[in-house]
Every structure is written in structure tokens, then in C-alpha cells.
Amino acid sequence: MADSSAQHRARTQRHKEVVDAKIAQASESRGVVLVHTGNGKGKSSAAFGMIARALGHNMRVGVVQFIKGSFSTGEEAFFRRFPEVEYHVMGDGFTWETQDKQRDIASAQAAWNLACDMLRNPDIALVVLDEINIALKLRYIEIEQVLEALRNRPAKQHVVLTGRAAPDALIEYADTVTEMRPVKHAFDMGIQAQKGIEL
Fold first, then answer.
1. For residue 27, what are the contacts with CB-CB under 8 A and spacing of at least 6?
2. Does residue 168 contact residue 198 with C-beta atoms inside 8 Å?
3. Pairing of strands 33-37, 158-162
4. Distance (Å, whole) CA 192 – CA 198
5. Half-sphere exposure of 106 (CA within 13 A, CB side)
6. Which pLDDT score, from 0 to 100, does residue 23 have?
7. What is Dmax (Cα atoms) for the chain?
8. Residue 143 CB contacts under 8 Å (≥ 6 apart), including other chains
9. Which of 41, 53, 96, 112 is deepest in the core (most CB within 10 A)?
10. pTM over 0.85
């Protein structure tokens, strides 16, 4: 049986009180670290959605893409239109494509050096380190280097780190962690990567 109007009001009022209490407790204002990980689609896409949100608030954004780099993407083409976005594609492509470990390590180190510059710049409000988790998993970059840079970044700066297999130490340090879980994917059914969806 459906709730009566009075029951519905009482239930939603209790819900509102719980939500309002949580909002009242959240009094700290500072930069946050977010990790998007897991085997499902959407880790980078979510980060790029946050870039759009930041631009809506007139914030400056820095993007460093690790690993990726062998093909152009819609998000790169779009965000390069904005002078507020500093966008760098630093990878040479996925590791199964490059098949050159030393080159991949050199690319990851160059990307990390650029990321460090952004993580020291108080004028950049949001830093997106796309696919850095893969570089960490493969030990192309050491997790302690990353944690130290995150600890010492400007107090109001937000950072998003994406990629599968985020290290436990990074998950523990981060303020918000989301794990993408695959349920179905068109690629598994033989459908090519599509512009505007994966590319």
C-alpha cells in the first residue's frame, strides 16, 4: 500500500533532518583528493566531467595524461579550446601497444615531472592525473613520490587520480574513492570503440 501523504511527509522530514545534520557537520573547506579506480568504464570520463564543472566556476585546470597518447580523443579536442585548461598528453600509448618498457618509464617520469609542477602551482585549482594508477602499478613512478607531492600541494587544490588498480596507500590517503565495476560493455560484444563514447 502506498504511503499516505502524512506518512510520506514524516518520512521525508526525517530524511531531511539526517541530511541537514551531515551538511552542518561538514564545516571544513580545503582541497580534496579523489581516486577513480576499478575495472569498469567511466574513470576518466568522470574526471573530465569534473573539469567541465570546474570551468563553470572559472577555475584553472591542469591535465596530465599518463599511458594514453597514441590516439586523439574528444575530451582532448574539446578542452584544448579553453585557455583555462593546461592539457598534456604524455604517454606513448597503452603498454601492450608500445612494448617498450624503458620508453614507457621515461614517458611516465616526464609526465610526473610535469604533474609536480602543477601540484606546486596554487593558481591551478584542479589537477587531473589521468591513468596515473597504471604507472604506479607498474612501478614507473613510486607511490611515495606521489603521496609526498599530494601532501605538500596548495591547500585549496583538488586532485583527481584515475586508472585501474589504485595502490592501497593512495586509496587510504584519498578523501573520496570510487571504484567502477563493469556489468556489461559493448566492446565485449564486438562493438568498436565509438567517438563520443570511448574516444
1. none
2. no
3. parallel
4. 9
5. 6
6. 72
7. 68
8. 136, 167, 169, 170
9. 112
10. yes
Joined grid coordinates for residue 125: 585549482
To which residue does cell 533532518 refer? 17
For residues 174 and 51, the answer to whether their CB atoms sit within 8 Å is no
Alpha helices in the chain (DSSP H): 5-25, 43-56, 74-79, 95-98, 101-119, 132-137, 143-151, 168-173
3-state secondary structure of 104: helix
* pLDDT per residue of the chain (199 residues) written in tens, 0 to 9: 556 888 888 888 888 877 777 777 877 789 999 999 999 999 999 999 999 999 999 999 999 999 866 567 889 999 999 999 999 998 765 555 566 788 888 989 999 999 999 999 999 999 999 999 999 999 999 999 999 999 999 999 999 999 999 999 999 999 999 999 989 988 778 888 788 887 7
Which residue is listed with cell 562493438?
Answer: 191
Domain 35-182, CATH number (from 3.20.20.70, 3.30.420.10, 3.40.50.300, 3.40.50.1820): 3.40.50.300
Q: Looking up cell 596554487, which residue turns up? A: 122
Q: Which residues pair with 34 in a beta bridge?
A: 160, 176
Query: Distance between CA 166 and CA 44 in Å, rounded?
Result: 13
Give the up-direction half-sphere exposure of residue 13: CA atoms within 13 A in the CB hemisphere.
6
Q: Give the separation between CA 64 and CA 85, rounded to whole angstroms.
A: 11
Give Cα 92 distance to the centre of its chain: 20
